[in-house]
């Protein structure tokens, strides 16, 4: 019997949505602070995060079975991949937020998030139709 709750597709989609959701918050924070003197923008390297998540899942599958008492897999979270950009700015107030660039990143991130939601919805529809028989 198939274990529907441990579906790896759902696991990867959840990780992707978690990462994109956090990136949306980080980019929105950059935009909100566009006029804050000394503010340094941040970003989440989504591709690096997702690759680390995939690698971690692969290692967990390959590792020998261990008891819960001595096995604590490292959980890869998107928070580990948020980095502050310390680069200098041409602005006098030392703020390095480029509003046009941040708005472009925000739009791209929204498109990626909506695409994953569409994939998730279709996947759940397939699972639902299989469950109904």
Characterize the structure shown.
- The chain has 133 residues and is mainly α.
- The protein has one domain.
- 57% of the residues lie in helices and 5% in strands.
- It has 3 helices and 2 strands, in the order αβαβα.
- A two-stranded antiparallel sheet has the order 1-2.
- α1 packs antiparallel against α2 (46-62) and α1 (8-32) packs antiparallel against α3.
- It is elongated and about 65 Å long.
- The model is unreliable at 67-72 (pLDDT under 50).
Mean pLDDT, all residues: 88
Major sheet: 2 strands, antiparallel
By secondary-structure content and strand pairing, the structural class works out as mainly alpha
Helical content stands at 55-70%
Radius of gyration: 19 Å
Would you identify the regions where 5 or more consecutive residues have pLDDT less than 50? 67-72
Tally of discrete structural domains? 1
Between the first and last Cα atoms, what is the distance in angstroms? 14 Å
> What overall form do the CA principal axes indicate?
elongated
* Percentage of residues in DSSP E strands: under 5%
Would you report the number of β strands?
A: 2
Strand order of the largest sheet: 1-2
Number of helices: 3
Helix and strand layout, with pairings?
Blueprint: H1 8-32, E1 42-44, H2 46-62, E2 82-84, H3 99-132
Antiparallel strand pairs: 1-2
Helix pairs in contact: 1-2, 1-3
Tags for this entry?
133 residues, mainly alpha, two-stranded antiparallel sheet, 2 strands, 5% strand
Summarize the model shown.
This protein is mainly alpha-helical. 57% of the residues lie in helices and 5% in strands. It has one domain (4-132).
